[in-house]
Amino acid sequence: MPSPRPSLPTPTQISGTFPHLAVVAEAVPARTETGIGALMPWAERLWFVTYVAHKAGTGSGTGLFSIDADLKLTKHPESVVGTYADRLIHKETHQLIIGPHLIDVQGRIRTFESIVNVRLTAVARHLTEPARKVYFLGMEGEFIEADLETLETRPLCDLRQELDFRPHAYMHFKDAFTGHGRVVVANNAYEGRDYAGTTADGRLAEWDGSRWTVLERCQFNAITGRTSIGNAIFATGADNASAILKVYLPATGWQTYRLPKGTHTQDNSVTTEWPRIREVESERWLMNCSGMFYELPAMQYADRVWGVRPICTHLRIIGDYCSWRGLLVLAGDQTTPIGDSNPFVGQPQANLWFGKTDDLWHFGGKPSGWGGVWRRTAVPAGAVSDPFLMTGFGHKCLHLSQSGAKFVGFTVEVDPLGDGEWHTFGEFSVADCGYRHLEFPTGFSAHWVRLRCDEACTATAHFVYT
Questions:
Q1: Is 460 in a helix, a strand, or coil?
Q2: Cβ neighbours of 128 (radius 10 Å)
Q3: pLDDT tens track for 106-143
Q4: Distance separating alpha carbons of residues 233 and 177, to the nearest angstrom
Q5: What's the pTM?
Q6: Nearest to 414 by CA among 399, 425, 400, 429
Q7: How confident is the model at residue 7 (pLDDT cuts 50, 70, 90)?
Q8: Mean pLDDT score across all residues of the chain
Q9: What are the chain's domains?
Q10: Alpha helices in 84-129 (DSSP H)
């Protein structure tokens, strides 16, 4: 008979966090950032990779780690220090790509040495040679082709030159995804000038293998899709009016939906770290967007996205999340000195949170937030706004104002089923430089709400959900 497995001491656990699993950067020579950028179950372990603030050379003690079933933490000798938040399972070669590393099903590690100093934020499948190659995206706009057999890499383009940026625009590319014959990339630049409308450095863009097309000129953070059950590409971002969910379907092209923001602490480029869309149970997706977790159905019917539902608001910086051994695991970025810019943080560190998916309903506050379809926006006569999420919130209020026309009629329309069938809820007239508010009846809800405007004006339509 096999010998019994030796019993191990029970590790200390506090509210889903195990202190011994923390990854801590050394205090010298430079105090930096130690976020956990990517998680992946693979080769009988949970693998993760960290990110420091600015490429390699700081953050000694961080890198590539794995955790086994006994919650033993291992830092691998092949580990390199860098700014990494990319991961992908490459099905043809049976390898995990995480950071600059390749890991096979036996746990053997190889490294793309030529790109360890690139701040790797995403890896995506190749358009024409997917069985052998992938694309890497760097935070500064590096778009790189990589061969998974030879480990050769080749720069394809500099997205700073391809996507019509102004001189000295802020580069903070965060994600990439390949689907439906296109590679989609996101730059999440958003600062005070973007809020004021004097610059627009954020980007959502796509490449068909020969030509880049800019889809949106505002902050975008996460891009994900799948090829079974549903076939959509999802992208999340934000502007100064609301959070944004963009959806690509072959029959319709890109559609735009708007969501409330759960916090303003995650507006800026550097505080909007790695919101994700992930499958955390079989065919069950979670979307983390602007300080709020949502259920997001992987499937689509009648070329529409149905069933988006808020779960909770939160303030945690969550670099990635996944399911592992029946648990939901959230990666963190708990404390960030970054060159002692925060004088109250002594040593950079990060850890994981372990729980169940359903714990998220008690993880933060009940869903609440704010956002709008127009924010001091020049609106033409007859304009129809994007749909704004309405379901899953308690009390709902709409604030309306306009300038530029003597009177403007606004029509509030609701889509109760989420399938694009709209009904008139009410009609309201607002005078020039005037204001009205609408409190929806307690208990009233629909899946989406939108507005029509009958005269050209500069309009604000802002929802507050509590």
A1: strand
A2: 6
A3: 999 999 999 999 999 999 999 999 999 999 999 999 99
A4: 8
A5: 0.95
A6: 425
A7: low
A8: 94
A9: 19-362 (2.130.10.10), 370-465 (2.60.120.1110)
A10: none
